[in-house]
Write a structure and sequence with these properties.
By secondary structure, this protein is α/β, with parallel strands linked by helices. It contains 11 helices and 8 strands.
């Protein structure tokens, strides 16, 4: 597995020095990191600047979801701080939100723009929760993800964030050019707060383009060894 396909999530970290120390502990094979909302809220643009200074690709995972003008303006401002590879927003934000965000990025960066990734359904959710919340009870989780994914791609996203359980269906229905980024990757049977998890090997076999690994690497006793073993799978 290429190291560029493995994205290490810095989601819970709140201290810049500790974050950079962890990057050093993971070692030189690390090339792609995800900065989540807790980390960004605690450390702000400095974490983006420092990760970029170390030559790392950055997936900024703030899951934007608001009216189109607000989201596009927020993306405009956040991309001033450091080059970003991926930016996430919620697919259920709708066609206009996605279109305005893509248009902003194309005007600002031309072909060298960050990729937009649409969140389909969070991996912390399961089917019954969605039905209880008012989603169509005649639709399965896979059908809901497929509908959100297709509409998001049609609106202009470059890829989707989905669980491993929807991978094969999305890859078959959307083709090989769409990025499919998979969180909820586990090296053991522990699920933590995720409901729909999968092993790295299974996710790659079913069509993932990138895997997001958090605690499996960041809380490992030997992050470097853990990460290198993943690269050697």
């Amino acid at each position: 597995m290429k190291s560029s396909q493995l994205i290490v999530a810095f989601d819970q970290q709140t201290n810049l020095h500790e974050c950079l120390s962890l990057v050093d502990r993971i070692g030189p094979l690390l090339s792609f990191v995800k900065i989540g909302s807790i980390a960004f809220s605690a450390m702000g643009p400095s974490i983006l600047k420092e990760m970029h200074a170390r030559g790392l690709n950055i997936f900024l995972d703030l899951k934007y979801h608001d009216i189109p003008n607000t989201v596009s303006q927020a993306i405009d401002k956040v991309t001033d701080h450091a080059p970003l590879s991926f930016i996430s927003l919620h697919g259920v934000g709708g066609k206009e939100m996605i279109e305005s965000s893509r248009s902003l990025l194309e005007k600002k960066f031309a072909s060298n723009r960050p990729f937009l990734l649409a969140i389909t359904i969070l991996t912390s959710l399961h089917e019954k929760q969605l039905h209880d919340f008012g989603f169509d009870s005649n639709l399965s989780m896979v059908e809901m993800v497929k509908a959100i994914g297709k509409k998001s791609v049609d609106a202009g996203v470059d890829g989707l964030v989905c669980s491993g359980f929807e991978l094969e269906m999305l890859r078959t229905s959307l083709g090989s050019s769409i990025a499919l980024v998979v969180p909820g990757i586990r090296l053991t049977q522990e699920t933590h707060d995720q409901k729909r998890v999968m092993s790295p090997a299974a996710a790659m076999k079913q069509g993932a383009s990138h895997l997001v690994l958090g605690r499996a690497v960041t809380e490992s006793k030997d992050p470097r060894s853990t990460f290198e073993s993943l690269c050697n799978m």
